[in-house]
TrEMBL record:
Highest taxon of source: Bacteria
PROSITE patterns reported in the protein's UniProt record: PROKAR_LIPOPROTEIN
Signal peptide (UniProt feature, chain positions): 1-21
Family listed: Belongs to the bacterial solute-binding protein 5 family.
Protein name (database record): Solute-binding transport lipoprotein
Keyword annotations of the record: Lipoprotein, Signal, Transport
Organism, as annotated: Streptomyces cirratus
Length: 526
């Protein structure tokens, strides 16, 4: 994921209509077009079990699994879903109590009660999948279930972000009868309590049908959705133009977005909705590699890379340069990488290396994934290689793998330098800092800055008013820039392309940048 996402603002238009989100608190029985909405994406799930995925699999999870809390379109804080209500019961933010809605059931008929909630979250930590979301629950100590409708979460330390975690697909609820407590479910099926049930899943396609027993915040505007997974975004765009799919999300290249925004595509019945995004791309330096472990090498790369040229050549206005791991539009955003390293300067980079006794070109291998972030990724790394090679300070070799293999590779510490994307888990600046630090973190390379781990994050998490932690977030960004263990590259905009007869695309992205399929509907049915 990350995995899959946070203080994200979708658009001013969305904000102005966000109050409408509350009208779907109960299951929706309104009529809807029976013809499935078909959505194309390049973000194929890595697994169907939420205990084992912290990545783009959340796209599917949000639509078939339920969480205690959720983020309706336009919201910046979690609101009730399976829970009737949740609150901290102490001033220290260490005890969090949720009361479930009465009569909730999973699609197999099992009761969704407090014991099911405890089972769902305990198994994440018990299984401890290296690709799963267990690190998001690092502050959780134990879960108590005083009665069938009450769940009490006891935290090890104050953590005002814990409700945000419960609102993410990391906290997807599953029935104990079909999901083992100590291992991942492997029968290729799912059982949840979300807006849809997964009626069919095979390589390349997920078929979703209406879950008639669902009770929650989602106001479903369709009865059936088919998600079609594409390895090649060009084929996905062609399918949209040929009316084989109704909408696309994730993986469009800049050239494809420009093409879909053109008058010719409009004449073919295609519309494009642009949203403010907090999706980011960055490089990770592995301290196990003898070259990447050197601060001077990392800092010289930060001084050499021209983000403006990268964005202009590869992303053509669909992204903008990023100088912090906390993107623009998120609380506390600053530009420490610009402030510290300035404009691209090869002479300054050469001095940084020579001052560290490095006089020969530094040889490094950069790795990227071929099928997670879209076809532009290869062009992006080609441009990075060009810039660094032309400086004569570096010799870059490019390597790539499909996501499944790539994920195993970086988690096992095999790559000296590698590219990752980050989509917010929840809309808070903590989610652009905490996942990247600690002995075990989201990028698989231990990074333990004492000031962030022991002071800045604990202080910020004591503040229920998240704006009160701005000072700590700003200082954490400074530490990131000084260490340059992570190098932010760009921040993207979000695009949904759809056929002109499909409405709801402007509401379909939640604050975690996850597609809420229930918002899409055919105009002819209304």
């Amino acid at each position: 994921m990350f995995n899959r996402t946070r203080c994200l603002q979708i658009t001013a238009a969305l904000a102005s209509i966000s109050l409408l989100a509350g009208c779907g608190l109960l299951s929706d029985d309104s009529g809807a077009d029976k013809k499935p909405i078909v959505v194309g994406t390049t973000s194929k799930p890595s697994t169907l079990d939420p205990a084992a995925a912290w990545d783009g699999s959340w796209e599917l999870y949000r639509n078939i699994y339920q969480t205690l809390l959720a983020f309706p379109t336009g919201s910046t804080k979690p609101e009730p879903d399976a829970a009737q209500g949740c609150e901290f019961t102490d001033s220290a933010n260490e005890s969090y109590r949720c009361t479930l809605r009465k009569g909730l059931k999973f699609s197999n008929g099992e009761a969704l009660d407090s014991k099911a909630v405890k089972h769902s979250l305990d198994r994440i930590r018990t299984i401890a999948s290296k690709n799963g979301p267990k690190d998001l629950f690092g502050s959780l100590d134990k879960i108590e279930t005083p009665d069938a409708l009450t769940v009490v979460f006891h935290l090890k330390t104050p953590d005002a972000t814990f409700p945000f975690v419960l609102g993410s697909p990391a906290a997807s609820l599953v029935p104990p009868g079909e999901y083992p407590a100590d291992k991942v479910r492997k029968d290729g099926k799912t059982t949840g309590s979300g807006p849809y049930v997964l009626t069919s899943y095979k390589d390349g396609e997920a078929v979703l049908g209406r879950n008639d027993s669902y009770v929650g915040f989602a106001n479903r505007r369709n009865d059936n959705v088919t998600i079609r997974y594409f390895a090649d975004s060009k084929k996905m765009v062609a399918a949209l133009k040929d009316k084989e799919i109704d909408a696309t999300y994730r993986g469009l290249s800049a050239a494809e977005i420009k093409d879909l925004q053109s008058p010719a595509s409009h004449d073919q019945g295609v519309q494009v909705v642009e949203n403010v995004g907090s999706e980011i791309r960055y490089l990770v330096f592995n301290p196990k590699d003898p070259q990447a472990a050197k601060p001077a090498v990392r800092q010289a790369i930060a001084q050499t890379i021209d983000r403006g040229a990268l964005v202009s050549k590869v992303y053509q206005g669909t992204a903008e340069p990023l100088y912090s791991m906390v993107p623009k539009g998120v609380l506390g955003h600053k530009t420490p990488f610009y402030d510290m390293y300035g404009q691209p300067n090869v002479d300054a980079a050469r001095k940084t290396l020579r001052d560290a006794g490095i006089t020969q070109p530094v040889e490094l291998t950069f790795w990227y994934t071929t099928d997670r972030y879209g076809s532009s990724t290869a062009d992006e790394f080609t441009e990075l290689k060009r810039q660094l090679d032309e400086s004569l300070l570096f010799k870059i070799t490019l390597r790539s793998k499909p996501w499944i293999e790539f994920q195993d590779g970086y988690k096992n510490g095999e790559f000296p330098v590698f590219g990752r994307g980050w989509f917010p888990d929840f809309p808070d600046p903590d989610n652009f800092i905490a996942p990247f630090v600690g002995k075990e973190n989201a990028v698989g390379t231990p990074y333990e800055p004492a000031d962030i781990l022991n002071d800045l994050l604990p202080k910020s998490r004591r503040e229920s008013d998240r704006s009160a932690g701005v000072r700590e977030f700003e200082q954490a960004q400074q530490t990131f820039a000084k260490d340059a263990r992570l190098l932010p590259l760009w921040q993207g905009k979000l695009y949904v392309a759809a056929r002109e007869d499909v409405a709801g695309a402007e509401r379909a992205l939640d604050p975690q940048t996850v597609m809420q399929m229930w918002e899409l509907y055919r105009k002819t049915s209304w």
